[in-house]
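Minutes, project check-in
Item: structure for the 304-residue chain
Input as provided by the requester:
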Amino acid sequence: MDNNINLTDIISFLESDLITVHGDPDSVIVRYLRDPEHVDEYTLDWINPLKPDKQKIAETSKAKVVIADKEVLFSETLKNQGKVLLIVDNPKLAIAKVGNEFFVERPTPGIHPSAIVHPDAQIGENVFIGANSVIENCTIGDNTIIDTNVHIYSPVIVGKNCSVKSGAVLGGMGFGFEKDENGNLFRFPQIGNLFIGDYVEIGANTCIDRGALSDTVIGDHCKINNLCHIAHNNKIGKNVVITEHVVIAGSNIIEDDVWIAPNASIRGWLTIGKGATVGMGAVVVKDIPAGETWVGNPARKLEK
């Protein structure tokens, strides 16, 4: 996506993140973000703080504008090149914010003609609902994007600034049954709800069940990848990352800042403590204390 963006507009947007600006930003135009191999004078370049040779990267970049941390100095070389150096604490976060604001295309708010939306559904401002999606009598917060072929059941509540990708199913009945005296299975009522916080992203073909008698809760800023299943009654905190192909059985408590790696499985009725990491392919059958990393099948603490 190519643009002609005044650097002064980017600086104004980043005002609270900027430590200082070196050089003359007036009349400087930025057109795009690019990978390091394709940087040119119209690229908004940035330097990863983990790089060992940050000063050299800044001085050899073809870009007119570079975002870096305080370890990069506005040297005579940079001055002579006429570059503009934007100093921030976290260059990667700054480029993410700028990228989403200026370079990521968002669909025009509106409801596609083929979408089915319940007449009593509460749809916020600047919401996009894509083709063939079904929105039952639920609540969708402002600035949320619902992609194509999504089904959201009644009475799910989706927060503001969320993104739900194609094929996701939110708030369907959970998988709960009880046997009678003859061993025949009868469905246990699934009449709870699903609450999704603000700034949550839900990947393609992911299913999140409503609660049985209690509710399923997904906290603010959670990021859930494609092809995941989250069963009924789970209580998931804030800033939890659930990567692809994760399966979470019912009635778990997953606290804030947990990271769950691809293909992990979590048995029901467990607590995953704040800041814990669940390794790739792990099969979790016990509680995980806060801050620990567990791996393997069955999952055990990773000792350093």
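Outcome recorded: The chain is about 10% helix and 30% strand.
No further action items on this chain.
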